[in-house]
Specification:
2 domains; D-amino Acid Aminotransferase, Chain A, domain 2; single chain; 15 strands; nine-stranded mixed beta sheet; D-amino Acid Aminotransferase, Chain A, domain 1; alpha+beta
């Protein structure tokens, strides 16, 4: 993604090429940072408050030094006008700073990756990989941190196998989540998605789909499901703030039918986002 604009708590708006993170920031040394990424539609960020709420919660779980939520809102307000009315990606980062702080806040605006629409058009190919169920607090259930090495390694493995992305399953083959997405599937008129009790991320777009499902004529159930149920579904898709609703047409080499729900919900999500 091409970086279009950047702002930090100590420098305000600055050149996107400027180095702003200290070499001894624990975000760099230990991965101690939280972040949020969201879509901006026509200059309006979608559900910014919900993303800020989750960012504050993630920072608390990681034990980051204090940073005022108002500072992050101010940074977003600085970078968003730089993109005009284009659809872009806004990323907010809260780092631990050097040992014993102070914390640093960053706001970054970048282009929406062009590959997203290309993959949406043909459908995504995914594989299931072994993951860890975040069942205890020190595994940071539901936290969005920059410690993303495992997620990126899983994505790399998926591509090595000829797929686009991966979803995680635990040792009992229970479906968890994607590397950067939540997972959905349809059986009849019912949409299924893993429960937050599994320690997965409470996706902001996931929450929007829970709301939109009934409006689009579907029941929605959350629970604990084996991978075999997903493989037997009539359609599968994923959700995330940047990728939105992504149909899945292949799982572990098995072809999956492309049904109507993902496309219907994608249109409904866009309509909701663009209506402000």
């Amino acid at each position: 993604m091409t970086l279009l604009a950047m702002a930090t708590t100590d420098r305000g708006l600055c050149d996107p090429a400027t180095a702003v993170v200290r070499a001894d920031d624990e975000a760099l040394l230990r991965g101690r940072a939280a972040f949020e990424t969201l879509r901006v539609y026509g200059g309006r960020p979608f559900r910014l408050d919900e993303h800020l709420d989750r960012l504050v919660g993630s920072a608390a779980s990681i034990g980051l030094p204090p940073l005022a939520r108002a500072d992050l809102e101010r940074l977003a307000g600085l970078v968003l006008p730089q993109a005009g009315t284009a659809d872009v990606v806004l990323r907010l980062v809260w780092t631990a700073g050097p040992e014993r702080g102070p914390a640093t806040g960053l706001a970054l605006v970048s282009e929406v990756p062009p590959w997203i629409e290309q993959v949406r058009a043909r459908g995504s190919r995914i594989v299931a990989l072994l993951g860890v169920r975040a069942a205890v607090p020190w595994l940071l259930p539901g936290v969005k941190s920059t410690s993303y090495a495992v997620n990126m390694a899983a994505e790399t493995e998926a591509k090595r196998r000829g797929a686009d992305d991966a979803i995680f399953v635990d040792a009992d083959d229970v479906v968890l989540e994607g590397t950067v997405t939540n997972v959905w599937w349809r059986i009849g008129e019912t949409l299924h998605t893993p429960s937050l009790d599994l320690g997965i991320l409470a996706g902001v777009t996931r929450a929007a789909v829970l709301e939109l499902g009934a409006d689009c004529g579907y029941r929605v159930e959350q629970g604990v499901y084996p991978l075999a149920e997903v493989l037997g579904a009539e359609e599968v898709f994923t959700s995330s703030s940047v990728r939105e609703l992504m149909p899945v047409v292949e799982l572990d080499g098995r072809s999956l039918g492309r049904g109507p729900a993902a496309d219907v919900l994608q249109r409904a999500l866009r309509s909701l986002a663009e209506s402000g």
